[in-house]
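Researcher: We're teaching a course module on how sequence relates to structure. For the next exercise, students receive a sequence and then see the predicted structure as tokens, so they can try to spot secondary structure elements on their own. Here is the exercise chain.
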Amino acid sequence: MTDDSTEMLATLRCRLAESPLWPFALALYARPGVEAACLQLQDEAGVDVCELLWRCWLLHHGAIPEPGSETALAKVRRWQREVTTPLRRLRRELKAAAAEHHGVAQLRETLKRAELQAERETLARLQAVAMTGPLRPLAAGDPAPQELLSNVLQLKKKAHLSTLNSLMMRLDPPLGPR
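Model: And here is the predicted structure for the students to work with:
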């Protein structure tokens, strides 16, 4: 790495530290259409919403993870599979029973809070990957952000690509050099 690229990476990490992932994810998710798009991609294409929001955060700041970050990402994905996904599955399975039983409704709310806490932990782990793992600034020759995301998320169906594009339209343009 040259001095310029080392300095650029340090500036990028500083920018990421000044704009934490959790508030960014909450703000993006609250934008019109984003929640529906994320849930559609999660339910129909198996996309991890936390990782999607993380990648949007990186793109917003003009960065992408390097292939060397896969080991750290595998650990985060395991956390999602073993903790967050079972909580989500239980919460969803109890929806009908919660409408009929007050105690089940309370349990479902507890699961909902636990799921959100697990997602927040996931985002904290993903932010740590960005702060310490292999990362690089977007370059002029890189594909467009939508293409980068569709490739890494392995989206091939036209409907999923359309959903991703609608989500990306709600993302502010990338900051910094491109």
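Model: If you want an answer key for the exercise: Residues 102-132 form the longest helix (31 residues). The two ends are 18 Å apart (CA to CA).
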